[in-house]
Specification:
The chain contains 20 helices and no strands. It has about 400 residues and is mostly helical. The two termini are about 45 Å apart. About 35% of the residues are buried.
Length: about 400
């Protein structure tokens, strides 16, 4: 069963967020250097500290690393040197070396909180999640909202181990979505976590209940996502054999029939929609789909009745409101169409099809300036939708947005 074909199976440590932590590293290093050292600082060590500060301000991490190594060579007990070196190595993606340096800092001062936090982050990068999680849980709960807490949270989610209790990771990702709304790394981590849980649950379903109607429903969804509509229909029909009153199945089969290229698709789809209504009389989307077929058949009165039925069940269904108004235009009733479309646009001002239908209604009324304004609104909204889709596609494929026009 190809349930996992639409999801990627891989473990994702916090390394994938490396590109976003550069500022965090610089700030953390500056805080470490700002601390007074234990004991008396020699002039030679202080000179290296000052040069490390200058290198950090200049974003010269190679020189900063060299200065930190000079500090711990001159004084192996200098906690600033070991902590700064460990943070720097973590920021450069060298987690194993960072782990060694940060462990040395904690041996000198077990209360060194910054070293302990970055040790947890390094352990997470190395997939030493048993050691990382107690540290990360503590700091995610105590750090204020900001870059360090965000890093700790991403590491916790990245350490979610297949087969383990997913609750801590789910709780963490929900808190992060609230604290960092719209953050692309947080949303990506959420998608990865939800996908893994979907894979695990689907695998358990197939293993435990291979002949369940849910297995066939799940397989149908996968085939549908792959645009293999014939196989999807077969799986959905098998699901209905095992559960004849399964909601939304006949509706989905009907929609898939409409993708086929044959003369009988309307009747085949309509038959499925009628069966769906027998199971769920309040399915507004089924009324909407049936209305579309009646429009295609030029049965406008039946279509209008179905649009109205859909709106009774779901008054927010924009497609039904626009469809009903278009029938009024076919019946040469532009005044009523304008009234209805104005109400639709009031509640859904960014729906391009509503503006396009209103443009047609104004043309019937011979109100050309108003029609031109609605055409402009339609074109603008269509362009915005296309740009939004392209940006999302570019972000998925290239990791960057399309340039603004």
């Amino acid at each position: 069963m190809p349930y996992n074909s639409c999801a990627r199976r891989r473990s994702m440590p916090v390394k994938w967020a490396r590109r976003s932590i550069h500022t965090v590293i610089l700030v953390s290093l500056a805080l470490v250097l700002a601390r007074s050292s234990q004991g008396q600082t020699s002039d030679q060590i202080q000179s290296h500290v000052e040069r490390a500060e200058q290198a950090i301000r200049a974003n010269d991490l190679i020189s900063a690393e060299r200065e930190y190594r000079q500090i711990v060579t001159l004084d192996p007990q200098d906690i600033r040197g070991w902590t700064g070196l460990g943070i720097l190595l973590y920021g450069k993606g060298r987690a194993e070396e960072a782990e060694q340096a940060l462990n040395r800092a904690i041996q000198i001062d077990p209360g060194e909180s910054r070293a302990r936090l970055f040790l947890g982050l390094s352990e997470a990068d190395l997939r030493h999640c048993d050691q990382a999680m107690p540290i990360l849980d503590k700091y995610f709960g105590t750090e204020p909202v900001g870059r360090l807490q965000r890093l700790a949270g991403l590491a916790i989610v990245g350490c979610a181990i297949p087969g383990a209790d997913p609750l801590p990771a789910l709780q963490t990702i929900e808190r992060m979505k609230q604290a960092y709304p719209g953050d692309p790394d947080v949303l990506y981590a959420a998608a990865e976590l939800y996908t893994r849980l979907w894979n695990e649950s689907a695998g358990e379903l197939i293993t435990s209940h291979p002949e369940s109607y849910r297995v066939h429903e799940l397989a149908g969804e996968v085939y549908e996502a792959k645009n293999d509509y014939d196989q999807a229909i077969r799986e959905y029909l098998l699901a209905l054999e095992r559960n004849p009153r399964l909601p939304q199945m006949h509706y989905r089969i009907g929609q898939l029939y409409l993708h086929q290229d044959s003369e009988e698709v309307d009747e085949k789809a309509m038959n499925e929609f009628r069966q769906e209504k027998a199971i769920d009389p309040n399915s507004a989307v089924t009324d909407l789909a049936m209305a579309g077929i009646e429009v295609h058949r030029h049965n406008l009165e039946q279509a209008q009745s179905l649009y109205e039925e859909a709106l009774k069940v779901d008054p927010t269904l924009v497609e039904a409101g626009v469809g009903r108004a278009k029938i009024l235009l076919e019946q040469k009733k532009p005044d009523l169409a304008v009234q209805q479309l104005a109400a639709v646009i009031k509640s859904h001002p960014n729906d391009p099809q509503a503006h396009y239908a209103l443009m047609l209604a104004y043309r019937q009324q011979e109100k050309l300036p108003e029609a031109a304004a609605e055409m402009e609104a339609f074109s603008r909204l269509q362009a915005q939708q296309s740009a939004t889709f392209q940006n999302k596609l570019d972000a998925l494929l290239n990791g960057k947005s399309s340039p603004k026009q």
